[in-house]
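@channel sequence for tomorrow's demo:
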Amino acid sequence: MQDIYQKIVGILNSVPAELPDAFDEDWTRCIKEKLATLGGERDHVVYANGVTGEHVRGEWIYDLAWVADAGKGQAESSPRRIVLACECKWARSFGDIWDDFDKLLQARADYRIFITHEFGDESAESITDKLVKRIRDFEQTTPGDTYLLAVYEKKSGTFAAALTEILHPNEECTTRLVI
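structure tokens (generated this afternoon):
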């Protein structure tokens, strides 16, 4: 399972180098295009707005989703399982983050990814800690729920990525991924 997360973190960290003078919408578009390609390579139907491709349909609930679809190739979709749910929010405050992040809390997806950046006086570590607390405080969080929390650090020019897996109620295992 960590291999897919490592690939995703690698994708995230390639974007600042590819688009050094861009940010926000340009980075979001680039990230979604690369994740859509990866999802298509894994034979999933991909839902994302502003992205085109053989496996891509319009946005559906999340900024980007990979879906195992029983109706693949047919006019009408028939989702069997959400494989990946991703939200990307370039925030100025936690108030900006919560609406998008909370969509992932209720997602029944194999992989949940949240992408943001440092803002104000908040470091990547403090943002990650607050996101993990929100996961723990959500009453419907269940053992096995796993999140990739990726926070862009201005100083390093990379995404600080933390893989958080819920082991038991009120107990999580957070691993900092270094790619």
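heads up for whoever presents: Residues 56 and 136 are 33 Å apart (CA to CA).
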